[in-house]
Every structure is written in structure tokens, then in C-alpha cells.
TrEMBL record:
Protein name: 7-cyano-7-deazaguanine synthase
Signal peptide positions (record): none
Pathway connected to this protein: Purine metabolism; 7-cyano-7-deazaguanine biosynthesis
Species of provenance: Phyllobacterium phragmitis
BP terms from Gene Ontology: tRNA queuosine(34) biosynthetic process
Positions bound to ATP: C7, S8, G9, G10, L11, D12, S13, V14, S15, L16, A17
Domain of life: Bacteria
Catalytic reaction list: 7-carboxy-7-carbaguanine + NH4(+) + 2 ATP = 7-cyano-7-carbaguanine + 2 AMP + 2 diphosphate + 2 H(+)
Positions with a binding annotation for Zn(2+): C185, C193, C196, C199
SUPFAM superfamilies cross-referenced by the UniProt entry: Adenine nucleotide alpha hydrolases-like
Reported function: Catalyzes the ATP-dependent conversion of 7-carboxy-7-deazaguanine (CDG) to 7-cyano-7-deazaguanine (preQ(0)).
UniProt cross-references to InterPro entries, sorted A to Z: QueC (IPR018317), Rossmann-like_a/b/a_fold (IPR014729)
């Protein structure tokens, strides 16, 4: 399949890009600037495009992002520390973000005569993010089938939607993903903080996958406390 990958520059989407390059025909990477505080991730997406020798395009949807208020990723709110399994992480939701990005990506893919749009949503996102769940993926595919009826037949490819981030690390290693050249931290500092939900999830994923984590964290051990606390709350 000629596949366009939505690539943020994070571990999941960069691993997906390497997977597509190995297993299909990667036509390009598409990133979005929606005013995210961790905008430095876009540089990692650009580097991925250069590494895989495919075009990388950044689409500016900053005005849309400014209208999606109430998220710690776009507003002047603190990004909470802790595990994704905690209710406090809901402040990192950007309403309808994936639906907006996917709709644009399908338009680009149709114009470029691509066969598929690939997204790296995964099982670990289901608790917090409704537009990362299998039901959303299935419904969006149906919607796009109607939207492009008679013009294009494009598949929404989400190979990670039912697996964990640890599984993604394993798959990424299989396809020689340079994990150190990816960015996850929502705080967007000079180094990964090691304490926000994405850092904790990243650190835990490498541990569960049994693969060395090359990431430079400000706090390399906090994830142990966060995972323990999250597990205790889930279990009542």
C-alpha cells in the first residue's frame, strides 16, 4: 500500500513510519502544528522523514488549536505528573484532535493518490483519549468511505490500536527505530521530564519490553512510584 503516515515525532508514530517503510510503500510523513507546548516534537518528525528519505510536511492548524481550549497541551495549564491511568491526565485531552488531523490527512492522501493513511493510536491511549479507541477508528473509516465515495478508496491503517506501548517498542526495535531520536514529553523542556504521563508510559514500556531505554530523563526513577500509585487506584 502507498501509505501516508501521520507522524508527530513521538516514539509511536516514528516506530510506525519505520514499520511502514519496511512492510509497505511509505509515501510521506504528515505532521500538525496545533500550538502544542511540546512543539519540539516536530523536529523529530522532520528528522524521521530525512532518515527514511520521504517528504515531510507540517500543516499549521494553530488557529484551530487555539479554539480547542481547556487542555494542558495548548493552554497555560500545568501538565500533571503521574500515570495515564489517573483521572488527572484528562486535562491533556485536546478535543477532537485526532478526528481533525485524520480528516485533513485523508484529504491529502486522496490528492496524492495514496492507498492508506496510517496512525499510531494504541491500546494504552484508550482510557484517556476517546479518539484513539477501536470504535472511533472503525467509525472514522466508515465516514471517510462515504466522504470520498466515487473519488478515492483510502484505508485507515491503525496496526497498534489494540496493543500496548511495550508492544510498539518491541515492534520498533524489530524495524530498527532509533528511539533516542523520538520525543514524547508533554512538557517540552530540554530533556524528557520523566514525570508526565507520556514519560511514565514511555519508561514503563521499555521496561516491560525488556529493551534498554536510551532516553535522557530529568527524573529517571519517578515512573516506579507513578505506576505503583496508578495500579493501587485502579484496584481500589
Amino acid at each position: 500500500m502507498k501509505t501516508l503516515v501521520i507522524c508527530s515525532g513521538g516514539l509511536d508514530s516514528v516506530s510506525l513510519a519505520h514499520k511502514i517503510a519496511a512492510e509497505h510503500e511509505l509515501t510521506g510523513l504528515l505532521s500538525f502544528d496545533y500550538g502544542q507546548r511540546h512543539k519540539k516534537e516536530l523536529g523529530f518528525a522532520a528528522a524521521c522523514g530525512e532518515r527514511l528519505n520521504v517528504p515531510h510536511r507540517i500543516i499549521d492548524i494553530g488557529e484551530i488549536g487555539r479554539s480547542l481550549s481547556g487542555s494542558a497541551l495548548t493552554d497555560d495549564l500545568d501538565v500533571p505528573d503521574g500515570h495515564y491511568a489517573e483521572e488527572t491526565m484528562r486535562v491533556t485531552v485536546v478535543p477532537n484532535r485526532n478526528a481533525i488531523m485524520l480528516a485533513i490527512a485523508f484529504g491529502v492522501a486522496a490528492a496524492q493518490k495514496a492507498d492508506a493513511v496510517a496512525t499510531a493510536v494504541h491500546g494504552g491511549d484508550h482510557f484517556i483519549y476517546p479518539d484513539c479507541r477501536p470504535g472511533f477508528i472503525d467509525a472514522f473509516q466508515t465516514m471517510q468511505r462515504h466522504a470520498l465515495d466515487g473519488y478515492a478508496d483510502i484505508t485507515l491503517y491503525a496496526p497498534y490500536v489494540n496493543i500496548s506501548k511495550a508492544d510498539i517498542v518491541t515492534d520498533g526495535a524489530k524495524h530498527n527505530t532509533p528511539f533516542a531520536e523520538t520525543w514524547s514529553c508533554y512538557k517540552g523542556g530540554a530533556r524528557h521530564c520523566g514525570r508526565c504521563g507520556t514519560c511514565v508510559e514511555r519508561r514503563e514500556a521499555f521496561h516491560l519490553a525488556g529493551i534498554d531505554d536510551p532516553t535522557d530523563y530529568e527524573d529517571r526513577e519517578y515512573w516506579l512510584e507513578a505506576v505503583r500509585t496508578g495500579s493501587e487506584r485502579q484496584n481500589g
